[in-house]
Specification:
The chain has 230 residues and is an alpha/beta fold. The chain is built from seven helices and eleven strands.
Length: 230
């Protein structure tokens, strides 16, 4: 039986939220933001969860998040690093094999259905990313904001998480890229694209699978929760 590990990233500082409390601990619908996706992974068919937190937050998260909200599938809590890819790499080192679903906790509204489609797709393709087709026309510009190109909209996807990989594929790609400390890397698929010749497949997520990044997103998130409860 294949093992599926959710690596949940909750180590960011959330500077764009302009709050004293890091956004992963911010109240959303009566509970800390990170609890929403953790509960969803707990309810899904994933085998286990590895939670990646900010340095110094391990015991706080164990007590106030994992134990308080009964996230029984969490097998480990590890400290992340300065960059997102440092935190992912820390999470990968807590896993040995199987498949991994790498998820930003700020995407609080991931669903069990999305997770299960991820599990089916990664078992088939070994490398896949959740996203949605862009609703808007996209312009490619240079550093001076001069438009260089307008890509065909039907081929443009907005990337979300989870991003899902066969463990040895993503671990070997990270092993190669991490020493280069390339701060232009913004997601896990880029690392696979740079370090391997393996195809990355897009799978459909949801337009409601938003990332809580700014105060405006919080209002949208509260509306999503209210709609779900009705």
């Amino acid at each position: 039986m294949n093992k599926f590990t959710a690596i949940v990233l909750a180590a960011g500082s959330g500077k764009r939220m302009e709050q004293e409390v890091p956004k992963q601990y911010m109240n959303l619908g009566g509970v800390p933001l990170m609890v929403h996706c953790l509960k969803t992974f707990q309810e899904s068919k994933v085998t286990q969860i590895v939670l990646v937190v900010a340095p110094g937050d391990v015991e706080k998260c164990r007590r106030d998040i994992i134990e308080k909200y009964h996230i029984d599938k969490c097998i480990d809590i590890v400290e992340g690093g300065d960059e997102r890819y440092d935190s992912v790499y820390a999470g990968l080192q807590a896993v040995e094999d199987g498949y991994v679903l790498i998820h930003d906790c700020a995407r609080a509204f991931v669903t069990v259905d999305i997770i299960h489609r991820c599990m089916s797709a990664v078992a088939l393709y070994e490398s896949c990313v959740v996203g949605m087709p862009s609703k808007d026309t996209i312009k490619i510009t240079d550093m001076h904001r001069k438009v260089l190109d307008t890509p065909e909209r039907s081929n443009v996807w907005i990337v979300q998480t989870p991003q899902c990989f066969e463990y040895n594929l993503i671990r070997s790609a990270y092993d190669e890229i991490i020493p280069k400390a390339d701060k232009t890397i913004t997601d896990d698929a880029m690392i696979v694209e740079l370090a391997t010749d393996h195809d990355v497949h897009m799978i459909e997520g949801s337009y409601l699978n938003i990332k809580i990044t700014t105060p405006e997103d919080v209002a949208f998130g509260e509306a999503i929760l209210k709609n779900r409860s009705n």
